[in-house]
Amino acid sequence: MFLLELSTFCMYIILEYFLLYFMRLFL
Question: Keywords in UniProt for this one (predicted)?
């Protein structure tokens, strides 16, 4: 259970950074 939450949290962080990078690339 704890491992699953940690994995979800990491995925969310990676997604946030990806979106930030994507926006910076186009702006």
Answer: Membrane, Transmembrane, Transmembrane helix
